[in-house]
Specification:
Blueprint: H1 2-26, E1 29-34, E2 39-42, E3 49-57, E4 70-78, E5 88-94, E6 102-109, E7 115-127, E8 130-135, E9 139-145
Parallel strand pairs: 2-9
Antiparallel strand pairs: 1-3, 3-6, 4-5, 4-7, 7-8, 7-9
Length: 154
């Protein structure tokens, strides 16, 4: 009985240690959409807005590129319809990230309908043989037609 309890305690310590390892790497970074536009009023025939995404290394440590490049991913979709034909995304691969380095990428959004959209941004990094995922806060974007008219789409 004591051996079983000791084995269980050892297993719990190993699992807890593995969970802590990934979370410590995730806390080494910040990921955000800088100054997001949350309301788009469409007045022209080729509406577009650009969002800037920043991944920052907050540590004194460099993270070298490992097998399977690290990626920044952005995905915009109509609220409640993640797999909609109106959804689109971008993926940017990058190599090593140096201490206090900021990697900046942009996403241009061309809405095809008015309504609410969700901008979802995340990063996947290969660190010490593990994939670490960092998520930014989701951004709600409302698209409004100021002068609705037929044939306004590009």
């Amino acid at each position: 009985m004591k051996k079983a309890a000791l084995a269980f305690l050892l297993l719990c310590c190993i699992i807890f240690s593995a969970c802590q390892k990934g979370s410590s790497h995730a806390s080494s970074f910040s990921l955000e959409v800088t100054a997001p536009t949350t309301k788009m009023v469409i007045r022209d025939t080729r509406p577009t807005r650009t969002y800037t995404i920043e991944l920052k290394n907050l540590t004194e440590q460099a993270f070298p590129a490992e097998h399977g490049a690290s990626t920044l991913r952005m995905y915009m979709y109509p609220k409640g319809r993640r797999s909609s034909p109106l959804a689109f995304g971008s993926s940017y691969a990058f190599g090593a990230i140096e201490p206090h380095e900021t990697i900046t990428r942009t996403l241009s959004f061309f809405p095809k309908e008015e309504g609410d959209y969700i901008l979802e941004v995340w990063c996947e990094l290969a660190i010490d043989g593990e994939i670490v995922r960092i998520d930014a806060e989701k951004t709600l974007v409302t698209v409004v037609l100021e002068f609705p008219r037929k044939g306004w789409l590009p």
